[in-house]
Structures are given as structure tokens and as C-alpha cells.
Amino acid sequence: METLEEREPAQNEAQELREEIKARADFYRMLKDLYFRALTQDEIDAMAQTDYTELRAGKEESLMAEGFDDIFRYLRKRNTGTRQELSADHTGAFLGTRVIAGKQAMPYESLFRDESGLLMRGPRTEVFRAYKEARIMLPEGMNIPEDHLAFEFEFMAILCDRAVACLDQGDWSGCDAQLALQEEFFEAHIASWFDLFYDRAMNFVQTRFYRGVLKVTKAYLDEEPASLAGARAAIASCDASSQAA
Fold first, then answer.
1. Which pTM value belongs to this model?
2. 120-133 pLDDT per residue, tens
3. Which of 7, 27, 60, 64 is buried most, with the most CB atoms less than 10 Å from its CB?
4. Distance, CA of 80 to CA of 88 (rounded, Å)
């Protein structure tokens, strides 16, 4: 018979995994909001009051720390013109009103993966199919193509939510299936083009704030394959422990 001492490590591991996956969902949603639209004054003020110490912990001298440092230092000097400056930078870079050498830096997969360099191409269809198969659809009336980076980040967050729900039900195989779907989508529809977007967008954004956003995003996505692999290994361990009991 399994003792309480034997059961506790497995329970702790499952709880740690739950918190890790939930934190990934929160981080993806934070990134989604930063790319989808310009920040409001309330959001700017809230970000300025955020303590980034925990997010930077253990990552000193890294691209992640550098990015958060850019964000914090920019917001620390905010003034009455900050919201307008950030809005103009977001619009110029991510909404495509700024053109350099005939190119734009809008965060759409089609723009970077399709040979034509145009929107509404094959990658958008692939992403739409992935959403449909997962029974996730954009809100009615949304006229933004499905392969916008913000929507892809929200998709990853939703899969994280589903993985947590499976954990709460003790459904190890269901949780692993959600993580496997994340791995597949991430490799096909985020890792496949984000670096191209990053390199171009760094030449388009004009504020230290959005340079920081890009750096934080790249640093986070660079770690995502290892995070997913670690989460799946933890799931296998928890499942094995539960079967042994």
C-alpha cells in the first residue's frame, strides 16, 4: 500500500507542474496583449508599477533580463506623451503604417512564411485549420487574419488552460495530449517564422519599450521547446507514479 510519504512527492510534482503551465498561459496572454493593440493609459501605469524581479530571477545577463530592463527603464520615465508615443510606435511597426525598403513588420505568419510575402496566404489557412480542429474560433466580426501572432499566442494559452483542466481531473494522458498539440503548433506556426519577424521588427520599432517587448518575446520563445519537453517528462513521471500506486 502506498504511504503518505510516497504520495506527497508525486502530489507536489503535479502541483508544481500545474503552476508552471498556468504561468505559461499567463505569459502568453501578456505577450498577446502587447502585440494585438496599443496600450491604454491605465495599462501603461499598471505595467510601470509591476515588479519584474521574479520574472528576471535566475536570468541575469540574459536577453530576457535585457528586455525587461528596457521596458522598466522606458516606463520609469513615462510622461503625458508616453501613451501617444507608444501608440504611434505600435501602429507604425505592427499595424504596417511604417514601410522600410518596401517591407512591413506586421506580426502575421503569412507575411514571413509565404514566398509571396503577402497576407492571407497558405499559412493563414493552416492556422485556421488548427484552430478549427481544436474547436477554437475567433470572435464573430473579427476581421483580422487568424495567423496574427497575438491569436497564435492566445491559442497556446488556451491549450495551457486545457492542460491544467486535465491535471485537475487527474487525466495525465489528456494533459500530455494538450502539451503535444502545443509542441506541434509551436514548431509549425511560431518557431517557423518568429525569428524572421524579430529581426525585421527590431529595425522598425522606435521606442525602447517595444525593443524590450521583442527581446522578452524572443527569449521566452527560445526557451519554450525545453519547457514543453520538461512538462511532458513531468507528466510521464506523475502518470507512472499514479499507476504504481
1. 0.91
2. 678 999 999 999 99
3. 64
4. 14
